[in-house]
Write a structure and sequence with these properties.
The protein has 189 residues and is α/β, with parallel strands linked by helices. It contains seven helices and six strands. The protein has a six-stranded parallel beta sheet, sandwiched between helices. Bound molecules: flavin mononucleotide.
Length: 189
């Protein structure tokens, strides 16, 4: 059994995090540890028809974002990595600067210090230089910035197709097999 931390922060696009949890629930051998920030609980109610309890039910373990004594707060607790989906500019900044005042940012910081995989899906546009600098800092520390930027060569037809493509790209980073989008097969004429 492998463990994966899923952080969902309060930027727009909370549906990306929900879809990731749905997909991981149906994959054997991965125990999900969910941290829903307070901001995420707000956007969840404003952007989706999901109740907090419904989203929490998709995860194996749910952590209180205020509980800095949770298992995932320590590097000695073994996990394969962490994805923050979506990642607000506030959480991005806190991660870039190790401002670990809640469990989501503490777990992300631990993931970086243990040299485990950290994937952030930042959602903001346009970006100012501070946002870009924080993304650079996280990248320099080994994190992966994976914006929810859709491609169109797989001919998406629905919003769900676009969401699945980003979620599939997150899973690709962890080497998790999926069939969420059609891969480019080459145009080798
Ligand atoms: C409806 C709504 C949409 C938001 N969208 C974004 C967004 O796309 N990107 C962002 O960085 N912050 C966004 N915010 C602001 C964050 O929720 C706010 O900065 C919050 O403090 C983030 O805290 P967290 O990262 O701990 O969840 C949004 C807030 C609301 C209420």
């Amino acid at each position: 059994m492998q463990r994966m931390i899923v952080g969902v922060s309060g930027s727009s696009g909370v549906i990306y995090g929900i879809r990731l949890l749905e997909v991981l629930r149906d994959i054997d051998g991965i125990e999900t540890h969910l941290i829903l920030s307070k901001g995420a609980k707000l956007t969840l109610g404003l952007e989706t028809a999901y109740a907090v309890a419904e989203v929490e039910a998709l995860a194996d373990i749910v952590h209180n974002p205020d509980n800095l004594a949770a298992s995932v707060s320590s590097g000695s607790f073994r996990v394969m990595g962490m994805a923050v989906v979506p990642c607000s500019m506030k959480s991005l900044a806190q991660i870039a600067l190790s401002l670990n005042d809640n469990l989501l940012t503490r777990a992300a910081d631990v993931t970086l210090k243990e040299r485990r995989k950290l994937v952030l899906v930042p959602r903001e546009t346009p970006l100012h230089l501070g946002h870009l600098r924080h993304m650079t800092a996280v990248t320099e520390m080994g994190g992966i910035i994976l914006p929810p930027a859709p491609s169109f060569y797989h001919a998406p037809k629905t919003i769900g197709d676009l969401i699945d493509q980003t979620v599939g790209k997150v899973l690709d980073q962890f080497g998790i097999e999926h069939g969420l989008f059609r891969r480019w097969g080459g145009n080798d004429t």
